[in-house]
Amino acid sequence: MIKKIKNTNNRITGLYLIIVLISIGLVAKIIKVQQFSLAINTTSQPRYFKVEAPRGNIIADDGALLAISMPLYDVRLDMSVMDKKLFDSSLSELSSLLADLFKDKTNKEYELFLRSSKEAKKNKYILLRNKVTHNELNALKKMPVLDLGQNKGGLIAEQRPNREKPFGLLAQRTVGVLRGVNPVGIERAFNQTLSGFDGIHLKRKIAKGIWVPQDAEGNRLPRAGNNVVTTINTDMQDVAEKALENTLINNNADWGCVVLMEVATGKVKVIANLKKQEDGSVRENFNYAMAKHVSPGSTFKLASIIAGLEDGFFKVEDSVRTYGGKFSFYDRVMMDSKLGLYDNITIKNAFINSSNVGISRIIFDNYKNNPTAFTDRIYKMGLSTPLELELPFPNNLKSPIPNKGGWSGVTLPWMSIGYEMQLTPIHMLTFYNAIANQGKMVKPIFTSAISRDGKIIKKHTTQVINPSICSKSTIETVIPLLIGVVEDGTAKNIRTNNYLIAGKTGTTVINFNNRDLGEEKEYQASFAGFFPADNPRYSCIVVINNPRENGHYGGSVAAPIFKELADKVYASDMSIHTALRPSDQVLSLPKVNQGHTNDANNVLASFNINRIVTDEMWMVASTTNTQVSLEVRKVERDLSNGNMPDLSGMGIQDAIFLLESYGLVVEVSGIGTVQSQSISKGNKFFKGSVIKLELT
Question: Which of 124, 367, 459, 631 is the most buried (most CB within 10 A)?
Answer without folding.
Answer: 367
